[in-house]
Structures are given as structure tokens and as C-alpha cells.
Design a protein that fits this description.
heterodimer, A: about 400 residues, alpha+beta, five-stranded mixed β-sheet, two-stranded antiparallel sheet, 7 strands, B: about 230 residues, alpha/beta, five-stranded parallel β-sheet, four-stranded antiparallel β-sheet, 12 strands, about 40% helix
Chain lengths: ~400, ~230
């Protein structure tokens, strides 16, 4: 390679400067070493001298690279020849063996220089490569984060749309009935009204207003609950409770809904207490029973069973004998506002029950899913019993005793 | 006029149907309801109504398809119940054959007024008739003479075609698309601005006060409605 010209870009300039320093070092170190060795000439032999000079060359190779090392080798050879090989003080060599020694020295010096420089270059290269890989990895991570952020944004936009659609519909529908009823009653009170509703019709209109107002209210409460679940702000008040109490409470509330079905309860005898929010779990059971009643024909059976899965978990199942839930929808039913186009009136569904149920169950650390097989739909959920400390265990034992 | 007019209500929400049934029967209409489009068509065949009121968003066959199916077999008035902001759906419904729309939630008085207007509409003037006479307007299709409140009016050919079309569909909400297609043909159905200009010109000629039109009424974002006058 030609020597770099004066006006080169800085990296080349730096390399040149480094090499220049190396040459300088070689120029200084070898004579210095020679001088030192000369001082001890009487106590050391030629081999030691050669090895010492070799060491200096090695050092120069490691620090300044191949070329200064070559310079050091050459200089070392000359010094070795001149100052140490007889006849000392001349460049001639008397003993042919010393020729061999000298050549070997030169070859070794150059080789060592090259090898160590090479090794160093390799080390530098792999360091460079490692840095490159790290940089690429970081870039990849950033790109990935950006992409998933964009995807998350898109998803949330989609959800917002679906939410808005569903909310709009579910608010407008009761409002329509209310407005129609109210304006009918108002028309009646006008003096020029030629029509009069009979008492029964009037009463029915007022009842409709009442029912639809309740519906709107329930809807807004469900929305709020769903929003809380989404924001992770569910406030659960967990106490040690008996699952059978919760199930019975839910069934009592659902009595009107289930009056046309056969409700069967099958709760295991050894059901332990669980640390749950009784109201929330009751609501889950109520929702499942409500769905079962809505989506199965009158007269069929609704079965609620609960039992222990293992030392730490309880499982509860609600099944009906309706048309069941197709396999591809088994996950999607838990989506907000999912509403299957079912045969019966979709009105009271509102599509949020299962989403809220899932939110509650998962907030307890449990799982809720649709089981396959069987005739109708089977919804199963697990609940962890909850942490037990000494006090808790005692409380459990004593209330279990009181129950029996 | 003593015979009760029959109204068929199609809506999947039972509460709405309940209220409408009660309210309308108190007003002297004979009312039946259907929870979806299919059963509406069945009822339609067994019990031909004078007017159909249908919701647009229903499971199964949509309200729009119901309009189309009804139009295949009948010219009876159809009023659709729509949701505010769904301009696209309203236009589609009107193009599919609906006569008018009411936005939910609506007051009963508003719905009753629309029902009365739609039922009162004179039967559509047949194409063969030489003279179209409606309210304040009189058009002699042979001589192409147009008079408004007795005074003769001179219209350009396109204005004439437009007025004839309007006169043939009194009281009905006509979409931009329908008007453009009828007067200018299929290639022009997107040129709403074009239509606006012509409507403006026509208003200047036939309205006593073009700034507050009484005959050519604007239905925002949908189209226009023609009221021939008393």
C-alpha cells in the first residue's frame, strides 16, 4: 500500500499517525533494549539477547501494528548482528551458525509481529462487529415497538368504533320507546286532542317508560363497570365466603328469568371457603344463568355445579340445553358487545355480560371459558381459593364449623 | 274515509312495537306488527296494509332489502325509522323505494304527521296523462306549457324535466341520485352540485320567495322533497 498523502480524511490520518508513532517507538525501543542488554553482555548469552529483542518486537507489534513491528524486527536484527554477534562491532558474521541464528531471529521477529498484529486486528474487527450487532438489535427493538404501538392504536380505534356503534344503538333504542310513549301521553293532554287513551293503554305507556328507563340505567352501569375493568380499576372486596351461598343468592335474583326452566344445583359437599368478592361473583353467576335461560328453550334444564379442582382452586360450571355456542365463537363471546344473531329477541342482551364476567373472574386470578361437547352451552370458571394466613385458616375452620 | 287505514310496523325491538301499536291504534289506525323482515313479508301477503313503517337495523334481512322486496310487488307508502347520522343508510333506503324517513328518537306527533302526509299523497300520476295538475302547478305535457298559480312560467328543457319529475312524486323524499338519474341519466348521478344549481334556477322561477322555498324543500344531505301546495 502506498503511503497516504498529506491531505487525507482523518481516519487514514490517524492510522498514519499511529504507525508513525510505532516507527518512532521501534527506533527508540530497540536501541534502548540493545544498550541495556549490552550492559549485561558478560552475564547473558546470545539466545537471551535474541529472545529479549524478540519480546520488544512483540510488544511493538501489539501496540502499533504490523509495519512498525517489521521495522523493529529489521532494526533488532541489525543490532543483534552488530552488537552481539562476533565479530562485534561489524556487520559481518564469522560463525555460519550465527547466520542461521540471525535469519531465524529475523523470520521469527517478522512472523511474531505479523501474527500479533493480525490477532489484534481480528480482535478489533470482532469488537466492531459486536457493536454493529448491538446497534442493529437496538434498531430492531425500536422498530418492533413502533409497529406494535401502531397496531395497538389501530386496534383501539377499532374497539372505539365498535364501542360507539354498540353504545349508540343501546342508548337510542330505549330512548325511542320513551320518547314515543311520552309524546303520546303529552298529545293526550292537549286540549284539541280528539283521541284519548283508555286507562289501560295509559298505564302501559307509563310502564314502558319505567322499564326503558331502568334499561338505560342498567346499561350505563354496565358500561361503567366495563370501563373500570378495562382501566384495571376494579375494586374487589374480597372476604372468605361460601360458594354455595353466592350461587344461591344469584339464583334467587334470577328467579323470574328462570321460572320457565328446570334449574338443577349440584354443589360438592366439601366446597371450601374462597376469598372472593361475593357480590361480583354472584353477578357472574347471575349473568351465566341469565344467558342460559335466554338461549335455551323453555322447559329445558339449567345445571349449576361447583366443586374443588385441587387444593387451590374451585371450579363452577353453568350449562344449558339450548343450541350451544359454535366452536369458532367460543373465544369471541367474551368480547365486549358481542351479540350473536340468535333466534329469540336480542333486546336484553346488550352484549356486555360475558365481557364483564370475564373481567371479574380474571381480576380474582381465575379463568372463564366455554367447554366443548355436550348439547347446549357450558360455561366453566375457576377461582383460586385465595391466600391463607394463620388467621384466615382459623376463620375458615370456625365458619365451616358454624355452617354445618 | 271511514275505513280504517292499515299500518304494518316492522321492528325487532318489542318495546317500540308495543308503543307504536298502542299509539297508532288509538289514533284510529288498524295496526299489526312484525319482528323481522321475513314475517313482515308474510303478513304483507295475508293482510295488505296501506302503509309500512320499518326499522332499518334489524337482524336477518335488512330494512333496505325489505323496501326492495316490497317495491317489487307494490307501490304502497313506506316510512323508514333511521338513526341520526346514518345519511348513507337513509339515502340507500330512499333509493330502494322508501318514501320518507323518521329519525329515532322521534315524537309521536312527528311520526303521525308523516303518516298522514304519506297516506294523503295523491296516487302517482300515470305516465300517459297529458295534463299534470297538482296543487299550485299545472303542466300540459303536450304543449309543454307550465303554469304556477295560474301564471305561465318559461322553463329551460332541463328545468322542465326536473319539474315534471318532482310533480310526479309529490311529498316523497327524492335523493340527489334519483333526481340526477331521472333527468340527466346514469352517468351524472354523482354531480350533486350540478343538481343544486338547477334546483336554484327552478326555485327562482316557481317559488314566490325563492329564499324561503315552499315547494322545493331541501332534505339536508339526502335530496329534495316537492310540495305542490294546497
Amino acid at each position: 500500500r502506498a503511503r497516504p498523502a498529506r491531505c487525507m480524511i482523518s481516519p487514514m490520518r490517524a492510522a498514519f499517525q499511529k504507525r508513525a508513532t510505532g516507527y518512532l517507538a521501534a527506533l527508540l525501543a530497540i536501541p534502548a533494549a540493545t544498550f541495556l542488554l549490552k550492559l549485561f553482555r558478560d552475564h547473558i548469552n546470545s539466545t537471551t539477547v535474541a529472545l529479549a529483542l524478540l519480546l520488544v518486537t512483540l510488544f511493538i507489534a501489539l501496540k502499533w501494528g504490523a509495519r512498525p513491528a517489521v521495522a523493529a524486527s529489521l532494526l533488532g536484527m541489525l543490532c543483534f548482528n552488530f552488537f552481539f554477534l562476533p565479530p562485534v562491532g561489524t556487520f559481518t558474521i564469522a560463525d555460519p551458525e550465527n547466520w542461521v541464528a540471525l535469519s531465524v531471529f529475523l523470520i521469527t521477529a517478522v512472523t511474531v509481529g505479523q501474527l500479533s498484529a493480525h490477532a489484534r486486528r481480528r480482535a478489533e474487527e470482532s469488537e466492531e462487529r459486536r457493536r454493529e450487532i448491538e446497534r442493529l438489535y437496538r434498531e430492531l427493538q425500536e422498530a418492533f415497538e413502533r409497529a406494535s404501538h401502531a397496531e395497538a392504536l389501530r386496534q383501539s380505534e377499532r374497539l372505539k368504533s365498535a364501542l360507539l356503534d354498540a353504545v349508540t344503538h343501546d342508548i337510542r333504542t330505549p330512548l325511542t320507546s320513551i320518547k314515543a310513549s311520552v309524546t303520546t301521553l303529552l298529545d293526550e293532554t292537549r286540549s284539541d286532542a280528539s283521541v284519548a287513551l283508555d286507562a289501560a293503554a295509559r298505564r302501559e305507556m307509563l310502564e314502558i317508560i319505567d322499564e326503558e328507563t331502568d334499561r338505560l340505567n342498567r346499561f350505563s352501569e354496565s358500561l361503567l363497570e366495563l370501563a373500570r375493568i378495562e382501566a384495571g380499576e376494579m375494586k374487589l372486596r374480597r372476604r372468605w365466603m361460601a360458594i354455595d351461598e353466592i350461587v344461591l343468592a344469584a339464583l334467587e335474583r334470577a328467579e323470574l328469568l328462570t321460572r320457565r326452566h328446570r334449574v338443577e344445583i349440584s354443589l360438592a359437599g366439601d366446597l371450601p371457603l374462597a376469598r372472593v368478592d361475593g357480590q361480583a361473583i354472584a353477578e357472574v353467576v347471575y349473568t351465566l344463568v341469565d344467558n342460559a335461560a335466554k338461549y335455551s328453550p323453555a322447559g329445558t334444564r339449567i345445571r349449576i355445579s361447583a366443586g374443588r379442582v385441587d387444593d387451590l382452586t374451585i371450579q363452577l360450571t353453568v350449562e344449558d340445553e339450548g343450541s350451544g355456542i359454535p366452536a369458532e365463537l367460543r373465544e369471541r363471546v367474551f368480547d365486549k358487545f358481542f351479540r350473536a344473531m340468535r333466534d329469540s329477541a336480542s333486546a336484553s342482551g346488550m352484549g356486555m355480560g360475558l365481557a364483564i364476567a370475564r373481567g371479574i373472574v380474571e381480576a380474582h386470578g381465575g379463568r372463564i371459558w366455554i367447554e366443548e361437547g355436550g348439547r347446549g352451552a357450558r360455561v366453566a370458571l375457576t377461582l383460586p381459593l385465595g391466600e391463607r394466613d394463620e388467621a384466615g385458616a382459623e376463620q375458615m375452620a370456625s365458619s365451616a364449623q358454624n355452617d354445618r | 274515509m271511514n275505513e280504517k287505514k292499515r299500518i304494518l310496523i316492522v321492528d325487532d325491538e318489542p318495546q317500540i312495537t308495543r308503543v307504536l301499536r298502542m299509539s297508532l291504534s288509538t289514533r284510529g289506525y288498524d295496526v299489526r306488527s312484525a319482528a323481522d323482515a321475513e314475517s313482515a313479508l308474510e303478513t304483507f301477503h295475508d293482510w295488505p296494509p296501506d302503509l309500512v313503517i320499518t326499522d332499518l337495523s334489524m337482524p336477518g334481512m335488512s330494512g333496505i332489502d325489505l323496501c326492495r322486496r316490497l317495491r317489487d310487488v307494490s307501490q304502497i307508502p313506506i316510512i323508514v325509522l333511521s338513526v341520526k347520522g346514518e345519511e348513507r343508510t337513509k339515502v340507500d333506503a330512499l333509493d330502494a323505494g322508501a318514501d320518507d324517513y323518521v329519525t329515532k328518537p322521534f315524537g309521536m306527533d312527528e311520526l303521525l304527521a308523516r303518516i298522514r302526509a304519506t297516506l294523503r299523497r295523491a296516487p302517482l300520476v300515470r305516465d300517459g296523462e297529458a295534463v299534470l295538475e297538482e296543487g299550485d302547478f299545472r303542466i300540459d305535457t303536450e304543449s309543454r306549457a307550465v303554469s304556477v298559480r295560474g301564471k305561465e312560467v318559461h322553463l329551460t328543457p332541463k328545468e322542465y324535466d326536473l319539474l315534471v319529475y318532482l310533480l310526479r312524486h309529490p311529498g316523497k323524499v327524492l335523493t340527489h341520485r334519483a333526481l340526477l338519474a331521472a333527468v340527466w341519466g346514469g352517468n351524472y348521478v354523482e354531480q350533486t352540485e350540478y343538481l343544486r344549481v338547477f334546483i336554484g334556477q327552478l326555485r327562482k322561477k316557481i317559488e314566490s320567495d325563492p329564499a324561503s322555498p315552499r315547494h322545493i324543500l331541501t332534505e339536508p344531505w339526502i335530496g329534495y322533497r316537492f310540495d305542490p301546495g294546497a
